[in-house]
Specification:
By secondary structure, this protein is mostly helical. The protein has 18 helices and no strands.
Length: about 400
């Protein structure tokens, strides 16, 4: 029993300890990094704090923006990243410290979620390697330390948690996994609407593929998947629904039609994605944004793909194939060759930058990077990690949650 308890604590603690060095640039509590968008979020939190002090704890209209004329900021922008900085600030932390703490927590929590997801399928060592690969992914670090993109940083941190919990719910109907996945989808919906647009179809395909790998009844798979997606994203319909219905009431089109934000001018190239790390030039002005995936994780991911030929277990082999296909598709979506698809799909122009898919590519690449270190145990090793009994899993009953 003692060994089990120590193992559980250590499992959760180790990826956080390994990820701490990556957060070192954020340890300067008295100053914030000079980033592309960080100053915008900084001033928005200050305006939100003033609104908070006047007793207005949430409003879709922020009265002190736009030189005091007010602005319908939360009509289309996500509230949770700003509140995640605001609450520690009003609790006593300085605004720079609260801002740095937010990005550090996003980096570490994304790694922990990746660890838990991969550990369930491939074992402890795979989880640790995948966790490090995800936290150290160039795009993830760029979002926090160069772009200062707090909404996307939180979105990238949440996605591995949703995949971990959604998988447990689909396969084992655990109450905690169901509620946790709902919470994760709600957090994602209030964190970064572009991530919702890209992650929803990803999660749908993943759960359907997982159900097929587990040879589950297709009605059960579809029922549980629809239940999770509808309820999860439905919890934020008061925000997302209003944002979609009132697109014509704000000048949101300017965020997709200017040259900087028009997807036609923001494709990546293979040379850029697979470029090596360049020496830092401190004298350069307006340095180009380094959108790359990293040679080390790509090399490990290729070896992980090849391991499909000797991986034990249908689910493990299926994960390798699914993640390989996902990484390939995400990479393809960054390239100009997919321009007809970008022009045809509805709402995708709000993604603005096709190179965002490099960030989505980081997730399957991180999983594949850890596959080579999978343990030799039986398939679905999570059965040894304290999942509840079959009786405890049955909590809603009915057709949708009927055992497969």
């Amino acid at each position: 029993m003692g060994m089990m308890k120590r193992g559980r604590w250590f499992d959760w603690l180790l990826p956080l300890l390994l990820g701490l060095p990556l957060t070192m640039p954020l340890w300067r509590w008295g100053q914030v990094a000079c980033t592309h968008d960080g100053h915008l979020h900084y001033h928005r939190v200050a305006a939100l704090k003033y609104m908070w002090e006047q007793g207005l704890f949430f409003s879709r209209w922020m009265p002190d923006l736009a030189f005091g004329y007010g602005y319908p900021f939360f009509l289309y922008r996500e509230p949770l990243p700003l509140y995640s900085v605001l609450l520690p600030h009003v609790a006593g932390l300085s605004l720079p410290a609260a801002s740095n703490l937010f990005y550090a927590v996003c980096l570490l929590m994304g790694g922990l979620g990746m660890f838990l997801w991969v550990r369930d399928v491939f074992g402890l060592w795979s989880g640790l390697v995948s966790s490090m690969a995800y936290m150290a992914a160039p795009y993830v670090l760029i979002d926090a330390l160069i772009r200062g993109n707090s909404p996307e940083s939180l979105g990238l941190a949440v996605m591995p948690w949703v995949l971990w919990l959604a998988r447990r719910f689909l396969l084992y109907r655990t109450r905690g996994a169901f509620l946790g996945a709902l919470l994760g989808l709600m957090v994602l919906g209030l964190s970064h609407n572009i991530s919702v647009l890209l992650f929803a179809p990803t999660l749908l395909v993943y759960l359907l593929g997982l159900g097929w790998l587990a040879r589950m009844n297709w009605r059960v798979v579809v029922g549980r998947t629809v239940l999770l997606l509808v309820l999860g994203f439905g919890l934020t319909v008061w925000y997302t629904g209003a944002a979609v219905l009132e697109l014509d009431e704000v000048t949101i089109t300017q965020s997709t039609t200017t040259r900087n934000n028009d997807f036609h001018f923001n494709y990546a190239t293979l040379d850029e994605i697979f470029s090596k790390v360049q020496p830092e030039d401190r004298l350069a002005i307006n340095r180009p944004l380094p959108i790359r995936i990293g040679w080390v994780p790509v090399g490990l991911a290729v070896l992980g793909l090849l391991s499909v030929f000797w991986q034990r277990g249908r689910e493990r082999r299926g994960h390798v194939v699914l993640m390989g296909v996902a990484a390939g598709l995400f990479m393809l979506m960054t390239l100009e060759v997919t321009n007809p698809l970008w022009e045809a799909l509805p709402l995708i122009d709000f993604v603005q930058f096709p190179w965002r898919f490099v960030g989505r590519m980081a997730l399957p690449v991180a999983l594949l990077a850890g596959v080579l270190f999978a343990d030799r145990g039986v398939d679905q090793p999570q059965r040894r990690r304290g999942l509840p009994s079959e009786e405890a899993r049955s909590f809603l009953g009915g057709f949708i949650l009927h055992p497969s």
